[in-house]
Specification:
InterPro entries: SKA1, SKA1_MBD_sf
Largest sheet: 3 strands, antiparallel
Strand order of the largest sheet: 3-5-4
Oligomer: single chain
Protein name: SKA complex subunit 1
Number of strands: 5
Structural class: mainly alpha
Radius of gyration: 43 Å
Distance between the termini: 102 Å
Strand content: 5-15%
GO molecular function: microtubule binding
Keywords: Coiled coil
CATH architecture of one domain: Orthogonal Bundle
CATH class of one domain: Mainly Alpha
Family: Belongs to the SKA1 family.
Order of helices and strands: HHEHEHHHHEHHEE
CATH superfamily of one domain: Ska1 microtubule binding domain-like
Shape: rod-shaped
Number of helices: 9
């Protein structure tokens, strides 16, 4: 056996002997009445420290959960902020802008004696129903096969153009007959012929109205957008005598 092996064996044996001596010494100390009180106090301190460590571990776990929750809230807030900023920077140009219908007109001497009465624009006698624009939530809910490459702005642009056709048509229908020119009267007569019992009291247009009052192309993309508008319950179709009527919902 090499000398290095003997030295390692001796070191190992001596370490074991030292450990045994310490155990015997500690056992003898535990039997010593003068040291029992100190050992008991040390034991209580060890138990207290153990409980304190457990409490600290529980608190650390709770703080880690709170940290993860705050991170999720921060991500959600940042995502909402980015979406709001995107919407602010990409407001569609076709959205209606607020208009001022009343103006205050001062009247010289009357201004000194009585309050100035506002002069307001006349309201239309009859309201014309228009289709509401598609919301971003509705756009996201449209099946992918139905949307294809169509964008949110393209769909709402068609809604806006269809509303123009509806307003133009019913403005003519609400005109007195005596004030109509010959071309307008021809349109009026066509509108009346297209009315059926199923459309009485409803607002609708046909493809001829879209051609007459808008620059929309009645192509494949237009009909794809119509499918989306039907899916989102903006229009519905009434068919009779070979004519499709797009009723505003």
């Amino acid at each position: 056996m090499a000398s290095s092996d003997l030295e390692d064996l001796c070191f190992h044996i001596n370490a074991k002997i030292s450990s045994i001596k310490k155990c015997i010494l500690l056992r003898n100390i535990g039997d010593d009445e003068s040291r029992k009180a100190a050992l008991h106090k040390i034991g209580n301190e060890v138990i207290f420290i153990h409980e304190l460590l457990n409490q600290m571990e529980t608190e650390v776990k709770q703080q880690e959960k709170l940290k993860d929750l705050l991170k999720e809230i921060q991500k959600t807030a940042e995502r909402d902020q980015n979406e709001a900023q995107h919407l602010l920077e990409h407001i569609p140009p076709y959205l209606p802008k607020p208009t001022q219908t009343c103006t205050t007109v001062p009247s010289g001497k009357q201004e000194q004696t009585q309050a100035v009465q506002p002069k307001c624009a006349k309201k239309p006698a009859k309201l014309i129903k228009e289709a509401a624009l598609i919301t971003t939530e509705e756009f996201e809910s449209v099946p992918a096969y139905m949307k294809g490459r169509l964008t949110y702005d393209q769909i709402n642009a068609v809604v806006q153009e269809m509303n123009k056709a509806v307003v133009a048509k019913y403005n003519i229908l609400y005109q007195p007959l005596k004030s109509m020119s010959v071309p307008v009267r021809n349109l009026y007569d066509r509108f009346m012929e297209e009315e059926t019992k199923d459309t009485r009291g409803l607002f609708f247009i046909v493809e001829a109205d879209i051609k007459e009052f808008t620059e929309l192309k009645l192509d494949k993309r237009f009909h794809s957008i119509l499918n989306i508008l039907r899916h989102c319950q903006r229009v519905r179709e009434v068919r009779s005598l070979g004519l499709i009527r797009y009723v505003i919902c």
